[in-house]
Each structure stands twice: as structure tokens, then as C-alpha cells.
Amino acid sequence: MAEVKDFKTVKVEKDQGIAWVILNRPEKRNAMNPQLHYDMLEALTELEVDKDSKVVVITGAGPSWCAGQDLREYFRGTDTNPVERRKASWASQEWRWRRLFTFPKPTIAMVNGFCFGGAFTPLIACDFAIAAEDAIFGLSEINWGIFPGGLVSRVLADAMCYRDAMWYIMTGDPFDGKKAAELKLINYAVPKEQLRDETVKLAKKLMEKNPQVLRAAKEVFKYCRNMDYNQAEEYMSAKGTALRLTDPEKGRETGMKQFLDEKTYRPGLGAYNREAK
Ligand code: ACO
């Protein structure tokens, strides 16, 4: 039975190791107002250390994943309130990028519908993204007088090729889930009725892996992207040593024992037996 926690604008449902984090302002297409930023920060902070949550899925209530920043409450509503603007802007950057990008557990964006503007930041921060084929994506900022800010342009440079990014930034053309998969902005798109099952399938695959190693693997890849080769080598060496010392499963030793001594598995074809002593 799923355990549910309601924040004002976000709902978290925990079921069989998956934490479903649901942006929950369907009447506003899950546009991000300041409250949603505060709620997401709190929800993610709790999930970081929640033992029952192995994989985090971010999705949206109703027909939208997230319609970007709330034009009324996030922008116009804080124009004359610099303190609230600062607080909201900090929380917005903190959860959408800094927390999510290197979240200690695997993260999946399950894009059920509209995904616009500022929603691209958490989309790209997640480790995986699966969308409904008919979901609509768009860098709509150009259509109402701003450019993709708040880190969107920066993270796009990592996630899209130069020509595609320039096209969508400068035209604001919307595109669907199938096109998003073709552009490699997401992993793949499926018919909407299969979206949840496909997401669960991926989450279950991830839950079979050693969680400590999964965490280190994503951190190494994500942090090393901006290091030079010497720094990356040094960082990975230190990280590898730390992992061997702190991995409660002693996965490296177990895997080698099962392959080399016991000859019970093939590491190229599957995971070592995590239950074996
Ligand atoms: N900010 C504030 N309110 C929004 C936003 C938003 N980003 N998106 C939707 N809403 C509100 C609408 O104002 C409307 O509110 P109302 O019922 O009080 O009038 C409600 O959500 C429903 O919106 P509709 O437009 O009626 O819904 P529809 O399903 O027809 O269209 C769509 C959805 C395409 C998402 C449309 O609302 C839209 O274009 N929204 C803006 C998307 C956008 O450009 N986002 C980027 C913002 S900029 C940034 O993120 C940096």
C-alpha cells in the first residue's frame, strides 16, 4: 500500500521502493510558484535520507508535467518583493539543479504532458527521462520576451546538440515526446498508457544494482564532465578508494569472487548475486 505525504503543491507517494514525486498544481499546469519550489526542496531533502525510497520519479498531476515558472506568482508576484524573489530564486535553483543533478539516488523524469521553459532544468538534471509520445516540450521564453535563463541555457548546452538547441531557443517551436527522443533530450517516448509501466520497469532494473555503486557511478560521470583529464583521474582514483572502503555490500570483492573463484556469473551479462554471503 502506497504511503502518501501531501505538501501544499507537491505530493509524494512511496510504493515498493519508488518515491513518486508529483508536482500537484494541475489547475495551473504545475507551473512553479514560490511555494512549489519550497515544497520540492523539502520533499527532496527528506527523500535523500529516506531508507524506503530507492528511486525517485518526478512527474506531474493532470495533463502537464510542468509548465515552467509561474508567470503570475514567481515573476510578476515577486517584482516588488526582492526578499521573496531572492528566497524563491534560491530554492528554485537549489532543487531543480544542485540537489537533483547529483541526487544520491537514481532519478527519473516521467514526462506525462507539457514541459516548458524552466521545467527543462529538472528534466535535464534527472538521470533518466521517459515521456509520453504526445507530451509537448517547448523553450517558449522567446515568445514572451525573455531568454531561457535560470540555468536553462547552460544545461541545454550539455543535453542538446548545438544546432537543435539554437533552433528551439530562437524559434520557441514546440515539439512532442517522439521528437524529444529523436533529439536525445529524453531516453525514449512511449504511448501515454504505457508510461507508468515503463518507468516502473526502469526503476526496478535500477533497484537490482548496488545503491552505493550506483551513486558513485553517477557522481563520477556528472562531476567529471567539467574537470580536466588530470583532475578527473585524481578524483576517480580517490572516489574508487572511498567506495571500496565504504560499500557495505563489498560489491567489488563479491563480484570478483563469484566470477573468478566460484564461476557463478558473467559480469558482462548481469549483476553479481547481492544476496550471497
Ligand atoms: N505560469 C502561470 N500560470 C500558468 C502557466 C505558467 N507558466 N502555465 C499555465 N498557467 C495557468 C493559466 O494561466 C491558466 O490559469 P487560469 O485558469 O487561472 O486562467 C491555467 O494554468 C491553465 O492554463 P491554460 O492555458 O488554460 O491550459 P491549456 O491546457 O490550454 O494550455 C499550456 C497549457 C500550453 C501549458 C499553456 O498554459 C501555456 O502556454 N503556458 C505557459 C507555458 C510557458 O510558456 N512556460 C514557460 C514560462 S517561462 C519560464 O519558465 C522561465
CATH class of the largest domain: Alpha Beta
Characterize the overall form: globular
Rg measurement, Å: 20 Å
Q: Write the CATH architecture name of the largest domain.
A: Alpha-Beta Complex
Which sequence of strands runs across the widest sheet?
A: 1-2-3-4-6-8-11
Helical run tally? 11
**Strand percentage:** 15-25%
Which class do the helix and strand fractions yield? alpha/beta
- H/E element string? EEEHEEHHEEHEEHHEHEHHHH
- State the domain count: 2
What is the typical, i.e. mean, pLDDT?
Answer: 96
SS elements, strand count: 11
Q: The CATH topology of the largest domain, please?
A: 2-enoyl-CoA Hydratase, Chain A, domain 1
Largest sheet: 7 strands, mixed
List the ligand species.
acetyl coenzyme *A
- Report helical residue fraction: 40-55%
Low-pLDDT sequence parts: none
User: How would you name the CATH homologous superfamily of the largest domain?
Assistant: 2-enoyl-CoA Hydratase, Chain A, domain 1
Distance between the termini: 31 Å
